[in-house]
Amino acid sequence: MAAEVASPATVRVCPLEELKRDLFKVISAEGRVILVLFHEGEVFSLDNRCPHMGFPLSQGTVREGILTCHWHHARFDLAGGCTLDPFADDVPAFATDVRDGVVFVDPHPISGDKRGHALCKLNEGLEHGLNLVLAKSVISLNELDASSEGLRQAAFFGLKNRAAGWSTGLSILTAMANVLPALTAEDRRLALFHGVVHVARSTANQSPDFDLEPLATRETRPERYVDWFRRFVDSRSEDAAERTLRTAIRIGLSQQVIATMLFAACTDHLYMDVGHTLDFTNKAFELLDHIGWEHAEAVLPSLVPHLVSAQRMEESSSWRHPVDLPDLLHKVHGELDGLLSEGGGRRRGWHGHAQLAQTILDGEPAKIIEALTESLRSGVALTDLSAAVAYAAALRPVHFHVSNEFGDWDTVHHTFTYTNAVDQALRRAPSSLLARGIFDGAMSVYLERFLNMPRQPLPSPSGQVTAGQLLAQFDVQGRVDETAQVVASLLAQGEHEVVVQTLGHALLREDAGFHQFQIFEAGVRQYRRFAGTPPGDHVLLGVARFLAAHSPTVRATGQTFDIAARLHRGEALYANQQGGAN
Ligand code: FES
């Protein structure tokens, strides 16, 4: 029925007697469709769209104060709109009034604490793995300019509800927070949604985490804590390492000392857990960049379970035969302090990244180590060397031939994300201990040389192309080289930011796995480092090829987000608003 506006905030519905007779009315006012019901002697008003997926509640059933939607059977309290089924969310309720035998409704929902409600729903979504609820929460928090609160809450949830410690979900959440500026406004919400979905998955069926207490001690020397922590990680003493770390944070040792302590433990052994250990540690510091160093004691101890249990590559035969890489590496590790004091990192404006990367890609281990040590001796900065190694690692997926086994994409991916993590960590907390990671990374690039045989050549630009053509490549399985071809053409057109945003969108519309999120974020980081040079273009080509190899997927996550976004915009997912509650 048509609504008649009786006052700025009050809409006339119908005479009370008419409502008693018909039991419900559906009216439209101020862009909303409102269901007004008479039940057990009272008048109630609710938004007529089921908050779950928009089915008209006027087609539901009312019994004993509960309205049941007929679509997925979510139930709502008539008196307040709260759902009894968390998957559905609460339905907005409206104030009603009966004056002179006529029913009026205020078309503005009874609003409580919107921010608190969205955060509460975020928690429920995380607890129960409800993706649609998570999507709605992320969208609401974005609209309320409270995305950073959502990020912090999701991170705390992921930390407290997983005794096994830091998770891939937390890495994805942090990686997506890192790349937000590179994405379109629409994709930023979707990126955070992926992050919280993966946090929920990482905590599903996990034991909660219980903290150990810091030591009650007068010991305050930073070097003592660094030594203790490294010793306890080395001997795989999880509780001792956790208490040491908690104490170091609690007594207020600097961020630099804590970072040195953790990154040293990550590089005391070679390429731990195919690089994940250092990558997770770097991500934990990046998470603290987003939520504040004051949360260090909540975040960093989550790294300990992984640190003490990680595989150490000196235990792996591929690192021992035919060349004993640990022998070579341990020797150079022992020389690093001397090399650094000799070179002093004094060379500014060094541009030898591409040349050094070629040596790492094609050289033998002793030659690679010599090239790196000579660079250090001549004053090349640690972060220039780490960038050169990351660039070498980025070239492996560029030249990866699709005749390799599919699983080998992960091999080249691991090295690239590890070398990127070393590069990021060195910018945060440079040290000769962490510099060992540069050499480990270079050896991992060396070990993967067979994955560039045959070597896929760089694609050449071929005519004018659009972002739409790039996106279309990801609709067909296996278009790895075709995708690189389109990227090369877009880059030749100077559309670098279009490439970054389109790759971001191509990632976010898929049901992407951990490695796709990782490689995109690492790629954006290294692209920014080399932007405006051929290495920058090469990084993007490698990311594009990796993402194309893993697309398309079912795209269910994006579909859920799209439903939530349409509901939030007030779109009618179901056109038929007729029929009746009974
Ligand atoms: S329960 Fe109402 S639309 Fe799903």
Describe the structure.
By secondary structure, the protein is of the alpha+beta class. It folds into five domains: about 5-105, 3-layer Sandwich (Rieske Iron-sulfur Protein), CATH 2.102.10; about 115-165 and about 190-205, no CATH class; about 220-310; about 315-450, no CATH class; about 465-560. Helices cover about 55% and strands about 10% of the residues. It has 24 helices and ten strands. It has helices at about 15-20, 115-130, 130-145, 145-160, 170-180, 185-205, 220-235, 240-250, 255-265, 275-290, 295-300, 305-310, 325-345, 355-360, 365-375, 380-400, 410-430, 435-445, 465-475, 480-490, 495-510, 515-530, 535-550, 555-570; strands spanning about 5, 10-15, 25-30, 30-40, 40-45, 60-65, 65-70, 75, 95-100, 100-105. A four-stranded antiparallel β-sheet has the order 1-2-10-9. A three-stranded antiparallel β-sheet has the order 3-4-5. A hairpin with a 2-residue loop joins strand 1 (about 5) and strand 2 (about 10-15). Helix 17 (about 410-430) crosses helix 22 and helix 19 runs antiparallel to helix 20 (about 480-490). The longest helix is centred in the C-terminal third of the chain and has 21 residues, at about 410-430. The two termini are about 20 Å apart. Bound molecules: FE2/S2 (inorganic) cluster. The site of FE2/S2 (inorganic) cluster (FES) has 9 residues, from loops.
